[in-house]
Specification:
Elements: H1 68-88, H2 92-102, H3 108-126, H4 135-147, H5 151-164, H6 169-181, H7 185-198, H8 201-206, H9 219-225
Helix pairs in contact: 1-2, 1-3, 2-3, 2-4, 4-5, 5-6, 6-7
């Protein structure tokens, strides 16, 4: 028997299988997104709360020592207020005497006001009948005489007033001015000392009283008006 030739079949080449697609969709690669820079207009500034501090206290005022003119003017104002009070209480004689001295004050306005009140006092006193019974009556009459230049007669009525009111400091002060105007230095100092002992304000009044000009060169007058303070 003839052997049949068996044809050898070539193995069929199998085509390559396509790669299996994943059923899950591929995620796109995450892209890096840089944050946009905030513009100056869009920035929100967070400010810290400032602590309110109380305002600083102002520095204390510097105390200035008053000048001699300022001290003298202050004393003149005090004398004017005293005379005005006497005027309002109808003590015209005493008020007239103070107003008369203030008419020579360096402060022009104060001197003019004193002249006005002096004129009113003189007008009222000229219509007053002369009845000298009390110390105040003699004092008022003596002041009027002194302003008229009748120093001697004025002194007599001041002494009568002093007998009726021996502790009236203003009568001693008026007598001191009369003696000073008559150049009686000892009499002026004696009565001025008594007036200051009764009322300390007379010391400051005498410091600026032109009636005591004759006493300015006397050391006793200076010691009386400006006593030295005791050392501590």
């Amino acid at each position: 028997m003839k052997k049949s030739k068996v044809k050898k079949s070539r193995p069929r080449s199998t085509p390559p299988r396509p790669a299996r697609r994943s059923s899950a969709p591929k995620r796109p690669a995450a892209s890096r997104v840089r944050p946009a820079k905030a513009s100056n207009s869009s920035r929100v500034l967070v400010r810290k709360k400032s602590v309110e501090r109380p305002p600083a206290a102002p520095p204390p005022p510097i105390k200035r020592k008053p000048t001699a003119e300022e001290i003298a003017h202050q004393h003149s104002l005090e004398r004017f207020e005293n005379a005005l009070e006497l005027f309002n209480h109808n003590q015209l004689g005493r008020a007239r005497g103070i107003f008369a001295r203030l008419t020579e004050d360096p402060a022009r306005e104060l001197a003019e006001r004193a002249r006005v009140y002096l004129s009113i006092c003189e007008q009222r006193l000229s219509h007053t009948p002369l009845q000298l019974k009390t110390a105040e009556d003699h004092y008022n009459y003596a002041v009027g005489l002194a302003n008229q230049g009748e120093a001697e007669e004025s002194e007599q009525h001041f002494l009568k007033a002093l007998k009726l009111s021996p502790n009236a400091d203003y009568i001693y002060y008026a007598l001191a001015t009369i003696y000073a105007l008559r150049n009686d230095v000892d009499g002026a100092l004696e009565n001025l000392l008594k007036a200051i002992e009764l009322n300390e304000k007379n010391r400051y009044q005498a410091q600026n009283d032109a009636d005591f000009a004759v006493l300015l060169e006397d050391p006793r007058f200076t010691e009386l008006l400006y006593p030295e303070k005791p050392m501590n």
